[in-house]
What we know:
Number of helices: 6
CATH superfamily of the domain at 16-133: NADH:ubiquinone oxidoreductase Nqo5 subunit
Strand order of the largest sheet: 1-2-5-4-3
Number of strands: 9
Amino acid sequence: MSVRTAAPRYAAKDGVIDAARAALGSMLVDARDAVGEVALVVDRASVVPTLTALRDTPGLEYQQLMEMAGVDYPERAERFEVVYCLLSLTRNHRIRVHVSTDEVQAVPSVTGIWPVAGWLEREIYDMYGVLFDGNPDLRRILTDYGFRGHPQRKDFPLTGYVELRYSEEAKRVVYEPVKLAQDFRTFDFMSPWEGAQYVLPGDEKAAPVAAPAPAAPEAKGAPTPLKADQIAKADAAVDAKADVDKPKTTESPAQTGAGEADPGNQPEDKPKAAPKKKPAAKASAAKRATAKSAKPVSDTADEPAPPVDAKKAPAKRKAAPKKAAAKKGDAE
């Protein structure tokens, strides 16, 4: 079952380089077909007519500029490359165009062919410092105002030159020189289990450790983990311990008293407890002494009793029936 789609099939790469040579002529410096992609290297001054020809020539027809990229090769005289990625909608095919330049010589701008190239050229200028002649607004687009250097260059430091932070005193973001808390180290990716033959920074501050003295040779026999003084202390503790009597053992039934009429475990053979004394006499004497101390003794035996108030006596006699009535009410 065939699937119909509006997108055209991929066009064959055969004949693309030949068609480009025929359309560009002397403007084409080199052409190569690698890893399934066609790359054309053209002269920097003729980049605008080259891209125009690639767009308008029948059989090529690369109508869209999909992307622009920059590459840095510090070992070259012209260290930078500007790469144009083109797409043919009618042929469903892609191609790359490479242009070389340096920090001084500007590349002609292609904003007259594809206006979208304006921002793409600004990105390459911001990241690599490549100049574009004819760009109406060639300024930084990714980094901040006053940024120093171009971050995508191979010689740009990884930490940059300045760092920013919010200042509480100035109430704004301020730039300060980069301060690294620790220098970068060079790693050789050597396994630590293999043993490194070098000294890491900071290891030289450690004091050298003296080698331990050689141990005295041990006598023949099983070695012991104890030292001589520990063995002497253990022997002294064993000697100071009290000797244990011979444990009591029974070798025959005769020693247990089995079979005897009176093996010695009868009630009459057991010691009798002394009789307990009864403390009744002491308790009665104590009670009598307490009663005597509680009873008041008058100074003179012949002293007459105090006279009784006649007015108060009837009141006491009258109060008695009230108490009896109250008790009767409680009982009911």
